[in-house]
Write a structure and sequence with these properties.
alpha+beta, 22% helix, 2 domains, globular, 386 residues
Length: 386
């Protein structure tokens, strides 16, 4: 399917001026006809005028679906704007009859042992294609949402990120068409005829070798390859070069292989979670996930260089007509020491196609054929044929 995209960014402190700049650029790029999808990202200083922003977007671009979220920082093109007033937009025009569909998810306090009812997911039963999803981290149980989606729509890919402009419930804003929400989640369902691929860079590199979990209880690894997990981990760290020992001391991670049927495992085959601690007496290692006996795991480290190499290698050879980028609010200049890192890497790989996105309080994207929540990652939705 042929498609067109456009992206815009404004750092003007007046929201009325910022929306004019962004809408003008999308109008110039989109030409005649309404946009099939417009995605809006706004930082906290813009939120007071967000209702006016959405009204202007709907009046001037007439999008079939308008979706958006508030974020602590934004990006578009090769620029990242961190922690000050900014507005970014991404537009998508489709040639053909493949309508995008808005997806609202609200919470109702119905009696459930695992929390509120997620109202709206039933409309996605047997859905395929790609769901661009923007949840609020304070009110939306995203892990449970992805689990329920896996049960009712196993072939649906989910990509997106959690709103990040606020530090308390009710502070974020989510946009869906003409409505603003302070909780739940909003999204847009793109049918399979719309070509979308996802790259998830978890920013880590493996150390040691793959190991089989031979004994575990919930999130406690008790034995790896028949040895006490804590003992094996200590020996592994001792054998590392001094610089990697320092990385392991500052923050160690573990990757679980998602597709055990692969002959060998490389970047992108692991779901990475944090190592939470160890118990020398019990010989156990606590990790941020439940890992079954028989699973293949490998320890990982993360630093700026690893995160750079991971994103650069995963983006190498990719082609697209446009991209949405959801990067962690722990990345940016805080991790890399320089601004614009992720935007630069993605733009360089794709050849400066339109892209926009936000810094998230948790990123969503598939690893293998399953959708997960990630941290310190960059999840990139690529629009167009490879």
């Amino acid at each position: 399917m042929a498609l067109r995209t456009a992206a815009a960014l404004s750092e003007h402190p007046l929201a009325t001026h910022a929306v004019g700049e962004c809408v003008g650029r999308l109008l110039d790029a989109g030409g005649e006809g309404p946009a099939d999808l417009v995605v809006v990202f706004a930082t906290e200083p813009v939120l007071g005028a967000l209702e006016d922003v959405t009204r202007a977007v709907r009046e001037l671009l007439s999008p079939r679906v308008l979706v958006g979220a508030s974020a602590v920082s934004l990006l578009a093109g090769r620029r990242e704007v961190e922690e000050h007033a900014a507005l970014a937009m991404f537009g998508l025009w489709l040639d053909g009859d493949a309508p995008a569909r808005p997806v609202p998810v609200r919470l109702e306090a119905l009696p459930r042992p695992d929390g509120p009812e997620l109202v709206g997911l039933a409309a996605l039963e047997r859905a395929t294609g790609t769901l661009v999803l923007l949840p609020d981290p304070f009110t939306c149980p995203v892990d449970r949402m992805l689990s329920e989606l896996a049960a009712i729509a196993p072939d649906l890919a989910v990509v997106g990120g959690m709103a990040s402009a606020a530090r308390h419930p009710g502070g974020n804003r989510l946009v869906l068409d003409g409505q603003l929400h302070t909780g739940g989640a909003v999204g847009v369902l793109l049918p399979p005829s719309v070509p979308v691929r996802t790259v998830v860079s978890q920013g880590c590199r493996p150390i040691g070798s793959p190991l089989t979990v031979t004994r575990a209880e919930r999130n406690m690894l008790l034995e790896l390859a028949g040895r006490p997990a804590f003992e094996l981990l200590v020996d592994l760290v001792r054998e590392l070069p001094p610089e990697e020992q320092q990385l392991a001391t500052r923050g160690l991670h573990i990757g679980r292989v998602v597709d055990e049927y692969r002959a060998e495992f490389t970047r992108g085959d692991f779901l990475v979670r944090a190592v939470l601690g160890g118990d020398k007496e019990a010989g156990a290692v606590a990790v941020g996930d439940e890992i079954d006996v028989g699973a293949t795991v490998q320890f990982h480290v993360r630093d700026a260089q690893s995160a750079h190499e991971d994103l650069e290698q995963l983006m190498a050879g990719q082609r697209a007509d446009g991209a949405l980028v959801f990067t962690c609010n722990g990345r940016g200049s805080r991790l890399f020491g320089v601004p614009d890192h992720d935007a630069e890497v993605v733009s360089e790989a794709l050849g400066d196609v339109p892209l926009a996105g936000m810094f998230c309080a948790g990123e969503l994207g598939p690893v293998g054929r399953s959708n997960f929540v990630h941290g310190f990652s960059a999840s990139v939705a690529l629009f167009g044929e490879q």
